[in-house]
Amino acid sequence: MAPTLKDLPQIQALLDRPAIADLVTRYSHGEVVEVLRGVIGALRLAFLSGDMPDLPDFASTSFAARVAKQIEAGRAPSLVPVINATGIIIHTNLGRALLAPQAVEAMQMAATAPSNLELDLATGKRGSRHAHVERLICELTGAEAAVVVNNCAAAVLLSLMATAQGRSVVASRGELIEIGGSFRLPDVIAQSGAVLREVGATNKTRIGDYAAAIDDSTAVLLKSHTSNYRIVGFTAAPERRELAKLAQERDVILMEDLGSGVLIDLSPYGLPDEPVVRDILKTGVDLVVFSGDKLLGGPQAGIIAGRRDIVAQLKAHPLMRAVRIDKLSLAALGATLRLYRAPFEPVRDIPVLAMLSAALEEIEGRAHRLAQMLRGIGMAQVEVTESVAYAGAGSLPDQDLPSFAVATALPDMTVELLGAALRRATPPVIGRIAQGKVMLDMRTVAEDELPHIARAFAQISAV
């Protein structure tokens, strides 16, 4: 006789069976009940939709094993390592900057042992967590003082709230940027309690526009580095030195939201002239804010560097407590900053900079080695092709980085299904789809990740 809805057991009846009762002991009552409700609910829906599902043997060990497997799947972490084969080095969706081993080691130390996070070892009194990186930042940027918060948006918010709350901020219309996640600079200014005063036009703003906008209510001239887009053609903007001179003459603060921020000149590596923080401060900018987890190559952080008196205001502001950097990120940032000192070589020791500056011959060789591995497992549609990689995360938006990729396809699978299957691999492999193939860009893939990619394809091909 075919099963019916009446043959579905009650949850309590299932819990009373020995194999299921054992699961309650191994896991928890709530987890087991949740999975059982899901199983019974799916069978009930099948009956109601007119299907005639085969009922499992609810008393069997195989059914209990199925329940246990679902519980284990639910317990698995959702945040997992992936292989970034997109060619986007600082990929926001994939966690941005990879940390150097020294930074990871510093985080582990801070996580597993007590530390002098806010203890002055010389005096035995309470110290400041900012002291652990302030001297390093000042050394590397030439700033008088520095402070670090949990991200760059918080750095902008704190800086404006401490210096311009209830007063006006003058900014060019061409620099009212939107960053990832639809966070817009005008909204951050409004949240700080300051009043935005826009000047100039989208493509042209002159020093006279800034000068005409300054009045008794003005606190800050805000310059924003357009790191995630470019306006080309009929454009104009005042030089930083012009703005600095104006700000000094009119007794207002010149602040720059640099966004990404670099500590070294990247032009020798074929990259555009991204402004170096030290050079910006030399022009007379009073305060510069920039990210720790982009081109700097460290953890998520918002770094604020500049005049000592302004930084002191920020340190004393009540918002600082809410946006301060945590101890793990602080440890990683300190370790990353130390890699900019001799005898270290940042372009060698910091993963982001190493990928940006990698030799094209090295990348091509890695592509050919992966292609050989894939052909070795029987894949026919494999080709090494020239590619274009990018810095990512709004950094160097118009700079193409020459690269090489392995283009792949399977005869009985669409590229969309192949891309999805690679994302389900362990570890997941994230590529991009172009020209009807899955492209795996080797600028962002490490040598020791090649066997994992080949193994993923072998598992997919075997299905």
UniProtKB/TrEMBL annotation:
<comment type="pathway">
    <text>Aminoacyl-tRNA biosynthesis; selenocysteinyl-tRNA(Sec) biosynthesis; selenocysteinyl-tRNA(Sec) from L-seryl-tRNA(Sec) (bacterial route): step 1/1.</text>
</comment>
<dbReference type="Pfam" id="PF12390">
    <property type="entry name" value="Se-cys_synth_N"/>
</dbReference>
<dbReference type="GO" id="GO:0001514">
    <property type="term" value="P:selenocysteine incorporation"/>
</dbReference>
<feature type="domain" description="L-seryl-tRNA selenium transferase N-terminal">
    <location>
        <begin position="5"/>
        <end position="44"/>
    </location>
</feature>
<feature type="modified residue" description="N6-(pyridoxal phosphate)lysine">
    <location>
        <position position="294"/>
    </location>
</feature>
<dbReference type="GO" id="GO:0005737">
    <property type="term" value="C:cytoplasm"/>
</dbReference>
<dbReference type="InterPro" id="IPR018319">
    <property type="entry name" value="SelA-like"/>
</dbReference>
<dbReference type="GO" id="GO:0001717">
    <property type="term" value="P:conversion of seryl-tRNAsec to selenocys-tRNAsec"/>
</dbReference>
<dbReference type="GO" id="GO:0004125">
    <property type="term" value="F:L-seryl-tRNA(Sec) selenium transferase activity"/>
</dbReference>
<dbReference type="InterPro" id="IPR025862">
    <property type="entry name" value="SelA_trans_N_dom"/>
</dbReference>
<keyword id="KW-0963">Cytoplasm</keyword>
<dbReference type="InterPro" id="IPR004534">
    <property type="entry name" value="SelA_trans"/>
</dbReference>
<comment type="function">
    <text>Converts seryl-tRNA(Sec) to selenocysteinyl-tRNA(Sec) required for selenoprotein biosynthesis.</text>
</comment>
<dbReference type="InterPro" id="IPR015424">
    <property type="entry name" value="PyrdxlP-dep_Trfase"/>
</dbReference>
<keyword id="KW-0808">Transferase</keyword>
<dbReference type="InterPro" id="IPR015421">
    <property type="entry name" value="PyrdxlP-dep_Trfase_major"/>
</dbReference>
<dbReference type="Pfam" id="PF03841">
    <property type="entry name" value="SelA"/>
</dbReference>
<comment type="similarity">
    <text>Belongs to the SelA family.</text>
</comment>
<keyword id="KW-0711">Selenium</keyword>
<keyword id="KW-0663">Pyridoxal phosphate</keyword>
<keyword id="KW-0648">Protein biosynthesis</keyword>
<protein>
    <recommendedName>
        <fullName>L-seryl-tRNA(Sec) selenium transferase</fullName>
        <ecNumber>2.9.1.1</ecNumber>
    </recommendedName>
</protein>
